[in-house]
Design a protein that fits this description.
The chain is an alpha/beta fold. The chain has helices at residues 2-18, 23-33, 38-59, 61-70, 91-101, 129-145, 167-179, 195-205, 214-227, 246-256, 369-374, 405-419, 456-459, and strands spanning 110-114, 124-128, 154-158, 182-186, 209-213, 236-240, 260-266, 270-274, 282-284, 289-294, 306-313, 324-335, 345-349, 357-358, 364-365, 380-389, 392-399, 424-429, 444-446. Strand 3 (154-158), helix 7 and strand 4 (182-186) form a beta-alpha-beta unit.
Amino acid sequence: MLTWLHRNFVLRPFEGMVKGRNTFRYWGELERTQWLSRTELEYRQLESLRRLLSHSYQNCPYYRCEWDRLGLKPNTVHTLADFHDWPILTKEAIRINRAQMRSSVPGQQMIAKATGGSSGAPLQFDLNLESHERRVAATYRGYNWAGAGPGTKQFFLWGAALGDRTWKQYAKDRLYDWLNRRITINSFEFSRAKVPEFNNRLNRFRPDVIVAYTNPLYAFAQSLEELKQIPYSPRSIVVGAEKIYPFQRELIERVFRAPIFETYGAREFMIIGGECDRHAGLHLTTENLIVEVVDDQGHPTPDGEEGNVVITDLTNYGMPFVRYINGDRAVAGFTECPCGRGLPLLRKVVGRQLDMIDTPDGRRVPGEFFPHLLKDFPAVERFQVVQESNSRVEIRLVLRPGWDDTSRIRLDAELRKVLGSTIAIDVTPVASIPLTAAGKLRVVVRTSGSASELTPSANRTK
């Protein structure tokens, strides 16, 4: 009852009347369309795609120039299969052409965003207000499958805002948490020494759901079991930001005595897919996105084979993302769920796995901290974090013009806040960062060997 009251008499009026957003209306639409047949959803996808391509060609100089060069016209796309021959959009192309990718439609309100750069290269981009509202609505639906819809009481073990916070920013954060009935525990501050404090806060708050980064929650669960501390058991747990492995799921569900619901998302789109209560796979946000798995030439990967994730955002008319390769890997094959929803299931996300960094004073810092921090340094083109022993960490930076002593001092200060004073930190400008044999950039590299390395044999509690 309290959830329903808070949702309808606090959140809904705030979103609609105070902020003037249509988020709840879009959420209602998505709750209805998820039950359409897959054929109907694909028809709607095609119609949305044709409108997006037409808009992009007419109003975005980058796309008009690129597609004219290749002899491509929006009116030639008659099926979703016709779209498979269109060019792939890379992060580098966005960095170079961001201004030309923006829509020239006058009066369109835009929101500037930045990715955390878990691929090792932060990215700045833009979106229009309606697109933002529609992706928030999709997150409402995805979390609602886990019993974590708006108005539920939520305990977030997540990356907190970095940098010095003014009292106004702090007050805004507290208001936002109150509006959403949640508390946020900074996962970047996690250490074994903080386990009793984190557990006490969880037990006092007694949430309906825990929402967390996978790695910190797994480390938290490990420590709780080792210390024989009993945490409060929520109705469900939502994990995101990185792939969860079966051995992690088993331990977390055992310790917290609650089912896990995996989500797959990206800063560029928010939620891409999520589990329903059948746990048969990740339902894709088909109404907002076209998700493909392709080979290195941009062609569809055969079912059962691993490929690159490519996404088209059907709602972002401010700065369209058309066949954008986001750096993730997945196994091709879109199946149906026994729940009856028409939303296809992505067979398997391989994703990126970021190691945790250990410090001499017992902190275990999730790898997501570094993309979260470095996205706010525009002069950082690429980065890599290397730890060869617990006493030292090296931050390798490929820099653009604009890096100065002020940037270095600010970076050092932010690193110290989270990594502490007992670890040596080397910030090293480099000309380039080598890729792996598979052509990937490892963002966080541990060579020292620790309990944070994600292999079942190393992480299972005996």
